[in-house]
Amino acid sequence: MCGIIGYLGYKDAYPILINGLKKLEYRGYDSSGIAVFDNNGYKLYKTKGKVSELEKKIISGSIIQGTTGIGHTRWATHGIPDDINAHPHVSNSKELVLIHNGIIENYHSLKVILLKHGFTFKSQTDTEVLVNLIEYIQKKNKLSLEEAVRISLNEIIGAYSIAIVERSHPERIVIAKLGSPLALGINDREFFIASDPIPFIDYTKNALYLKDGEMAILRKNKELDLRKILNNHKISPIIKELKINIKEIEKGKYKYFMLKEINEQPKTILDTLRGRLLITDGLIYIDSIESNKDIFLKAKGITIVACGTSWHASLIGEYLLEELARVPVEVEYASEFRYRNPIIKKKDIVIVISQSGETADTIAALELAKKKGAFVFGICNVVGSSIARNVDAGIYTHAGPEIGVASTKSFTAQITVLVLLALKIGKYRSTITDSRYNYLCKELGSIPDKVNSTLKIDDTIKRISKIYHGVNNFLYLGRGINFPVALEGALKLKEISYIHAEGYPAAEMKHGPIALIDESMPVVIIATKKGCYEKIIGNIQEIKARKGKVIAIVNEGDFQVSMLADHVIKIPNVSEELSPLLTVIPLQILAYQIAFILGENVDQPRNLAKSVTVE
Ligand code: F6R
């Protein structure tokens, strides 16, 4: 997965491209590059490392001027991150310049054909194969760039969003999309291209999301020309007004987006509930559930499919749906689900959960479920994303843009949606009493305030982080609905601080991980009052007997665990079903504080990218 950007208009392209690339770095940041065109040709710069490295290189080189340009920030798939593998890639004649997000699966066989025709390759990338394929087809058949692009793309197996410029025609950019996202901003006499609209919302709010199988020919001072890649049929563009609040994508007073996003959770949970939970009437109203009531009412089973943090939210969803709606639930990794032959029958319910709505494995799982005739319901954050567009029905989490690579606010927003869903289906199926339903609805309404109080434990966690930031391993334990929270806490620490961490169901510790425990091993244990409290006390004693250090998350008023633990983090009391919304907060802050003390780049951890749009 990578970020792509482009500009065609009358303004100087370079500042638009470089600032846009900075906003796309969440998609990848191991190398980047820019090409700016004028009537005499183009200047191209690329370099290993972050966009700031590219900026330094360009400042020390000559200033690039021109009103057409393309840029790319990379997350390596084919070939190591270095200057040569960075995009843009140039064809052998140096006439065509291409940027690409995605993967060309049949690049090897195409490369063999091109080598036979005398083409040479500098990089190890699939993108360099594509730009030369386009050149080969264009020259052989004497075609316009757009026709050569179209024919070449029909030979491609894989996923792409691309932008390509011909040196002798800087007044035109050709773009195309299949599988990877591509947004187009449109102003009077100018076009903006980007993997998401954030880089161009300062300039225009009029945008169009290219659909899979579409390409567009952008020409200076001309109308947008939108076509189908398959047959060149013209398509009427549907341009929509974007509704994005610029404040949501700025760091404000925070050093990192992750910290801002952790602290935003009282608001984001409120936004997720807004208009859906009417506490005073004990009413949950969600259009997409209401209009599919029959399907949910008769559900014999639900499969939830997701990756990473969204998979952890799915495990919490399993607990909630089984507990409150008494529907059997299976949770699957999308990457596993897509490659086996899952038993999904017509009308079965498959829920896909994804923050970005662009995760390649989750999209493939969605498509498989649809092929098998399932009713596919999506829980997504990014409005208009591929998953949001392709499900039969769904709910947006409304957490706002999440820029930090490690998911935080989208996790609590997903859990909030899953609570609403489980309560609503439970009500349909009469598996929950009115009093419990009303109580949980009321309590759900109070969660934003309780998250707010939980955030105040920041100082305690800073102290704990100072003690343990130097260790090599952490263990996270939880039981029942808080076991997935333990998994999530361990994932957060691994992702941003590079400390090895494992999440386990507390009672499983004695079946293996207990061997790791000694005086240098911190064990974070979720020990809230519900959920086998007595058993957890037993687990803590087992750890202490082996000199392990216990960091316990407990409820206010806790006494027993607090007496045993080395460090205690207190959170407000809440019903067990809603507890993950609070227990995860200290674990997010702990990961953040440790990574911060270690001096890591919290928002852009090594080897990761925000949306994994490749397999
Ligand atoms: C972890 C993280 C990833 C994502 C995973 C799925 O902090 O961000 O594990 O949760 O890549 O992404 P989405 O939810 O966008 O499908």
Offer a concise description of the structure.
By secondary structure, the chain is of the alpha/beta class.
Report what the structure shows.
- With 615 residues, the protein is of the alpha/beta class.
- It has three domains: 3-244, 4-Layer Sandwich (Glutamine Phosphoribosylpyrophosphate, subunit 1, domain 1); 246-432, Glucose-6-phosphate isomerase like protein, domain 1 (Rossmann fold); 453-607, Rossmann fold (3-Layer(aba) Sandwich), CATH 3.40.50.10490.
- It has 20 helices and 27 strands.
- The strands form five sheets. The protein has an eight-stranded antiparallel beta sheet with strand order 3-2-4-1-10-9-11-15, with helices on one face. A seven-stranded antiparallel beta sheet has the order 5-6-7-8-12-13-14, with helices on one face.
- Helix 4 packs across helix 5, helix 10 (308-325) runs antiparallel to helix 17 (483-497) and helix 14 runs antiparallel to helix 15 (434-455).
- It is globular.
- The N and C termini lie close together (9 Å).
- The mean pLDDT is 92.
- The structure holds fructose -6-phosphate (F6R).
- Residues 307-310, 354-356, 359, 362, 406-407, 491, 495, 611-612 line the site of fructose -6-phosphate.
- Residues 307-310, 354-356, 359, 362, 406-407, 491, 495, 611-612 line the site of fructose -6-phosphate (F6R).
